[in-house]
Amino acid sequence: MTIVDTKMKRGDASDGLLGGRLARIDGPAKITGAADYAMEHSPEGMVYAVIVDSTIASGRVVAIDTSAAEAYPGVLVVLTPDNALPIKTATDWTGAPPPAVPYEPLAREITFAGQHIAAVIAETFEQATAAAALVKVTYEETAPISSFDDPRSGEGYPIDMMTKEWGDADAALAIAPVRIEQEYKTPREYNVPIEPHGLIAHWEGDMLTLWEPSQWIDGMSRTYAEWFSIPFENVRMLSPYIGGGFGSKALPTRYGAVAAIAAKMLDRPVKLAITRPQTFTAFGGRPATRQTIALGATREGKLLSIVHRSANETSMDDVAIEPLGSVTSIMYAVPNFSSRQNIVPVNTVKPGALRAPGENPSAFGIECAIDELAYEVGIDPLDIRLLNYAEEDPHAKKPWSTRRLREAYAAGAEAFGWAKRSPSVRSMREGKQLIGYGVAAGTYPVRRTPGEAMVRILSNGTIEVASSGIDMGQGTYTILAQTAAEAIGVPVETVVVKLGDSSLPRAPVAGGSQLANLMTGAVHVAALAARDELIGLAINDPNSPFRDLQANTLTIEGGQMSSPRDAGSSVAIAEVMRRTGRNSIEALRNTLPENLRNKDDHFRNFTTISTMLSPTEGDYSMHSWCVHFVEVRVDVDFGTVRVSRMVSALDSGRLYNPKLAESQWKGGIIMGIGQALLEEGLVDQRNGHVMNNNLGDYLVPTNADIPHLEVISVGIPDTNASILGGKAVGELAIVGVAPAIANAVYHATGIRVRDLPITLEKLI
Amino acid sequence: MRDFSYLRAGSVDEALSAAAMPATMLLAGGTTLLDLAKCGVNAPERVVDVTHLKGLDTIRVDAEGAFIGALAKMSRVAADPAILAGFPAVSEALWQAASAQIRNMATIGGNLLQRTRCAYFRDPASFPACNKRVPGSGCSAMEGVNRGHAVLGTSDACIATYPGDLAAALVAFDAVVHLGERKVPIDDFFLLPGTTPHKEHAMQPGEMITTITIPASAAARHSTYLKVRDRQSYEFAAASAAVGIEFEADHETIRDIRIGLGGVATKPWRARAVEDALRGKVVEPETVKSASRLAVEGAVAHGGNHYKIELAPRVVERAILKSGALA
Amino acid sequence: MSNQTTINLEINGQAHTLAVEPRVTLLDALRDHLELTGTKKGCDQGQCGACTVHVDGERVLSCLTLAVQVEGRAVTTIEGLSDPGAELHPVQSAFLEHDAFQCGYCTPGQIMSAVSCIREGHAGSDDEIREYMSGNLCRCGAYPHIVEAVREAAKVMS
Ligand SMILES: Cc1cc2nc3c(=O)[nH]c(=O)nc-3n(C[C@H](O)[C@H](O)[C@H](O)COP(=O)(O)OP(=O)(O)OC[C@H]3O[C@@H](n4cnc5c(N)ncnc54)[C@H](O)[C@@H]3O)c2cc1C
Ligand code: SF4
Ligand code: FES
Ligand code: FES
């Protein structure tokens, strides 16, 4: 159990309120090494598992020779498809009922390089690792289709639910005075959180304890329960701290099943740590994408039509959709629109979710295309965006709940000094450095799932907040403490927050940037209920110090209760609790609508995404918005691009803690810089291997790659979007960074790079 | 990683006799050895730790030149004031390599012997074909992902880049590798892959690097190291150049010029053709540009690394102009 | 078990005796054998810096160091940077104040590296800090705040 308390003083008293810049309350644990990440437990008798992966991308396992591995000192068992304990297929995350076939986490049929085939379990990590290298696999290999650049992969097949159309896009394009059409591509990109994946699985009878970094404790617990046909309550998953996920730690994995199977078969706790190279194939990152965008416009730059055709890679055996029309369809006012999307199966692991799946590559396409149009018609890239500003959601035809994008353009342009831009390309230079300015906008939808929280007022006046929701760095611990402190009226130091444990009240996935809004909402509701009960107690209990006042309400401020009738005398909460003899006041509340409060729907709400509301459900279209202004310096001889200056203005609605929100924004921007300039899974087309499957070759930005970043909040509370007025934060800021940089590179060099990343060979 | 036994060498002789044993490797900083052991490329049965040997980490600079003990750490050499004064390119090549942590661990001797970053070489489990690992097994990189591979000094057997930065500077200034008593000029120490890419250097079993010496020169005093890469830091070179220049008394005619290339060749590469074209010439942008093109004479690309043929001369050119301004 | 040797390590000023195979890295010895899990494993290949510790006062990567290699040397980990309950090291305080981390997984390595960066005299300018802190990757993207924290801590430490 992880309890994070706020005893250390950090900042001013006002920082403890919602909207205050309170330092992270989980900070002291993290900076001293005391924070216990999931994989850092060692239950008695723990042994180590190492996975053996396929070295071919397509074909069949003919034989596995485990004899050398089994003979290796310390080896307890070598799991293969032949001897692994059979388990059932589980309900998937959308809630679709499972087929009645066994689930085989170790494969015989191979559809990608890096597929798990066997696992070696030994007394020590070193033994398991060495023995895993001794497992000999014989394959029957067939020629793989390694990527959608392989002509044999074809066009793939259409995903009809991705089609968005209005007006007559083709006809309008055909007669538009100005037409441009280009293809934009993004490569496979990977989450690479610095904490690699893995888990510790421990059976005690038919109780399964899992220490596993997880963005979704309840969803994953449900899967484990169904795999092993045990009640949901028998699974205890602990994930007190998560060393980054960015979308990659939300769903159960094959190796998770392997570890739990091994633990059951051996009746010993098993630790299975995915190696860094395996983090490129044990689960997927963002798929490679391509988009063709045709824009039709007037000579003044007013959009008449957008025709958008796109595709992303998926695996041979499953459907992964990266929604590429998501930004295209809402960013600009356009009377005629058509967007269709295919997916193309190739021999890869099933792609997963990586920060702003869909919006991120979608924005790369449309935000580059609009820039191209601006140069084509000869107007400022910022002006063309204002000219085509969407006053309402052009797709859903609903008003925006809030869209402070115009304010963002203004604030960002001012802070950046956009007016100093010299309009023509290759016109700004300092020595060997070509200088370019670029702008691009981004957006991320507000997703909403009902939440739940427990708030307790303890006899000593401590307030306890509890949820299985998680904190992987977004600041959940901190903002929930602030929420409870404000709602009840206590100093934030008296709030203790417990998270990341399936034995606590339920929470939906920490994905889609929804958790902060739904959790603060639930905690707010629960805290008010606890407060009301406390006040009721103080008014009504015969032993209460307020009994004689005959008050019908009381106020609580700074942890002190007082009556409006007698403001002078105030009594601490702990004193009221003591006098009334109460150990605790508990309020467990959820924000489910009436019709979902039954047991089944309650369970479904937290263990699937089937109740998540789309951003256009209801009267409004709800999204966060941002704009990035970038200055790049491109070495005229070497083609190396450096981002030298950047200002971003963002509308995430109300910020519960600006200090932490700014950190998340900057984190997204930095990941966007990596995406623009460095990140690319390099696939060997002959054999489907991701050749740069490590942190030395799959380059993410270092400290030296990042300049000072300025972020400006232009949001206002949006209570349509969430109970307390916040909109999406975590996934917003990456959206639009790559096109802003590509646009700046064009301005600097006159070279338009339409396939990421913008590496030096594309500029020399 | 395969298990091994660990010995601490008490003396150079002990280290040498241990090194003569089969399946034995000397352990210095360990940043190459352990990395490759984890990849399954190295599988020593015995590891002989030499880091506790006394006296092998001396750094001395006198009128003759620099004398650097094989066990001196990269970070210490980089920061040594006398190295900085007499051989700035050496210092720059060192501090731009790897990371501060690795430079605190890695030794100069180990640094020279670091091995290629060829991804096929580093993954024996997936790619049995690698002539460097298993002579005659083929080369997986030739038609694979080879953006980082060499364009100079390649053979039909291997196109792996020698990745080190330091050696590119050392080769420019005629450093000498001391294997105990035996002294080998650095250009001869490193071997071209030819038909035997598994043989990377001239060291025999039972030998070890004890010292590296770099003769003092005016060119070395006025030298610079320019490293170009995708990422600003913590990455190997896409192309790099160590350049030192000595002018005649007129301050513009080149008397001596030394150019070493990194990141583009199968061994630390001396660009003698460029040197020859510039000796006796005045440093002028056009002269330098056309001479720099000679750096990639005979270069062969294999697809992904084609850009290096364009990039390398530009790096050389810029480095010449920079070092010319220093001299 | 095969081939174990008994080694004596001095970690955070305390003597520890443990039996490990020679191939066990300092990182795994700390995390798996000594329950000092503050030092993180991000790659196990020398490519991320999460495992940074001090050996004889200098920052090194514990994933590319054998435990046996550091017998007789003083090892300091994040747990030994400040005493429990005592005041935080100035670098730790600065990280907290400047929000120089999010998930916190790279953080112990960043902090150990930052302490060295300052001690080495490599915190003279923001650009110097950036370069000398580049051996520690942070996927959450806390870099700008790390630079601020190192800059401020350097002032306190000087
Ligand atoms: C992530 C990462 C990034 C890197 N980036 C760069 C970079 O940008 N530029 C760069 O130049 N380098 C880079 N390196 C390579 C690094 O510089 C080398 O690994 C290091 O210099 C090797 O020195 P060492 O003392 O650790 O060698 P070890 O690993 O101890 O030894 C290497 C080899 O040399 C042998 N050996 C060691 N000393 C001697 C001796 N005295 N005599 C004979 N044999 C000996 C060993 O047996 C072993 O085979 C990087 C390394 C890593 C892991
Ligand atoms: S380039 Fe050389 S090292 Fe790489 S696979 Fe080919 S032979 Fe092996
Ligand atoms: S774990 Fe050591 S550098 Fe990544
Ligand atoms: S704080 Fe998460 S990786 Fe740095």
From TrEMBL, chain A:
> What domain of life does the native source organism fall in?
Bacteria
Where the record annotates domain Aldehyde oxidase/xanthine dehydrogenase a/b hammerhead, the positions are: 32-143
| One Pfam family, short name | MoCoBD_2
InterPro entries xref list? Ald_Oxase/Xan_DH_a/b (IPR000674), Ald_Oxase/Xan_DH_a/b_sf (IPR036856), Ald_Oxase/xanthine_DH-like (IPR016208), AldOxase/xan_DH_MoCoBD1 (IPR008274), AldOxase/xan_DH_MoCoBD2 (IPR046867), AldOxase/xan_DH_Mopterin-bd_sf (IPR037165)
User: Listed GO molecular functions?
Assistant: iron ion binding; xanthine dehydrogenase activity
Give the enzyme class: oxidoreductase
EC number(s) in its UniProt entry? 1.17.1.4
Alphabetically ordered keywords of this record: Molybdenum, Oxidoreductase
Please report the name of this protein according to its UniProt entry.
Xanthine dehydrogenase YagR molybdenum-binding subunit
- Tell me the organism's taxonomic lineage: Bacteria, Pseudomonadati, Pseudomonadota, Alphaproteobacteria, Hyphomicrobiales
UniProtKB/TrEMBL annotation, chain B:
Enumerate the spans annotated as FAD-binding PCMH-type domain: 1-219
Under InterPro entries, the record lists:
CO_DH_flav_C, CO_DH_flav_C_dom_sf, Diverse_Substr_Oxidored, FAD-bd_PCMH, FAD-bd_PCMH-like_sf, FAD-bd_PCMH_sub1, FAD-bd_PCMH_sub2, Mopterin_DH_FAD-bd
**PROSITE patterns, per this entry?**
FAD_PCMH
Q: Establish whether keyword Oxidoreductase is in the entry.
A: yes
Q: Which PANTHER family match?
A: XANTHINE DEHYDROGENASE FAD-BINDING SUBUNIT XDHB-RELATED, XANTHINE DEHYDROGENASE SUBUNIT C-RELATED
Species this protein is from:
Phyllobacterium trifolii
On the tree of life, the source organism's domain of life is Bacteria
What EC identifiers does the entry list?
Answer: 1.17.1.4
Name the UniProt key words of this record, in alphabetical order. FAD, Flavoprotein, Oxidoreductase
A Pfam family annotated for this chain is: FAD_binding_5
- Gene3D superfamilies, A to Z: 3.30.465.10, CO dehydrogenase flavoprotein, C-terminal domain, Uridine Diphospho-n-acetylenolpyruvylglucosamine Reductase, domain 2
Query: What protein am I looking at?
Result: Xanthine dehydrogenase YagS FAD-binding subunit
Asked whether the UniProt record includes Oxidoreductase among its keywords, one would answer: yes
UniProt GO molecular function: FAD binding; xanthine dehydrogenase activity
> What SUPFAM superfamilies does the record tag this protein with?
CO dehydrogenase flavoprotein C-terminal domain-like (SSF55447), FAD-binding/transporter-associated domain-like (SSF56176)
UniProtKB/TrEMBL annotation, chain C:
Q: Which domain of life is it from?
A: Bacteria
Q: Which UniProt keywords apply?
A: 2Fe-2S, Iron, Iron-sulfur, Metal-binding, Oxidoreductase
Stored Pfam families: Fer2, Fer2_2
Supply the PROSITE patterns for this chain: 2FE2S_FER_1, 2FE2S_FER_2
Record-linked Gene3D superfamilies = 3.10.20.30, [2Fe-2S]-binding domain
Domain 2Fe-2S ferredoxin-type, by residue range, is 5-81
Under InterPro entries, the record lists:
2Fe-2S-bd (IPR002888), 2Fe-2S-bd_dom_sf (IPR036884), 2Fe-2S_ferredoxin-like_sf (IPR036010), 2Fe-2S_ferredoxin-type (IPR001041), 2Fe2S_fd_BS (IPR006058), Aldehyde_Oxdr_Iron-Sulfur (IPR052914), Beta-grasp_dom_sf (IPR012675)
Q: Name one GO molecular function term.
A: oxidoreductase activity, acting on the aldehyde or oxo group of donors
Q: Which SUPFAM superfamilies match?
A: 2Fe-2S ferredoxin-like, CO dehydrogenase ISP C-domain like
PANTHER family assigned: OXIDOREDUCTASE WITH IRON-SULFUR SUBUNIT, OXIDOREDUCTASE, IRON-SULPHUR BINDING SUBUNIT-RELATED-RELATED
Q: What is this protein called?
A: Xanthine dehydrogenase YagT iron-sulfur-binding subunit
